[in-house]
Task: inverse folding
C-alpha cells in the first residue's frame, strides 16, 4: 500500500504579542484514502525569517507520520485481529 502526503500552507495570523502563527496542513493518504488531516503551526516574531520555523514543523510533522505508521502496524497485526475476534465471541446478546 502506498502512503502519500500533501502539504499546503495555511494562512499566517498575527497575534497580540506581535508574533506570527504560520504553518502547514498535512494530509496523509493510504491508497487514495485519507487517513490523517491535521494542521501544524509555529509562532515566530514579526520581521524574523520564516525559515526559522522549518525544523520545528518538520519535527512535528514527522512525529505525526511516525505515529500513524505505528498505529497502522498495530491495526494490521494478526494478534490484534485475534483479540477482536475473541472480544466479539465473548459478548453475548
Result:
Amino acid at each position: 500500500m502506498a502512503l502519500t502526503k500533501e502539504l499546503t500552507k495555511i494562512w499566517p495570523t498575527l497575534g497580540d504579542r506581535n508574533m506570527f502563527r504560520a504553518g502547514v496542513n498535512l494530509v496523509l493518504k493510504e491508497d487514495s484514502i485519507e487517513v490523517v488531516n491535521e494542521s501544524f503551526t509555529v509562532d515566530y516574531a514579526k520581521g524574523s525569517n520564516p525559515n526559522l520555523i522549518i525544523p520545528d514543523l518538520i519535527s512535528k510533522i514527522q512525529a505525526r507520520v511516525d505515529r500513524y505508521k505505528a498505529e497502522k502496524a498495530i491495526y494490521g497485526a494478526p494478534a490484534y485481529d485475534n483479540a477482536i475476534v475473541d472480544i466479539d465471541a465473548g459478548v453475548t446478546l
About this structure: Helices lie at 54-75, 78-90.
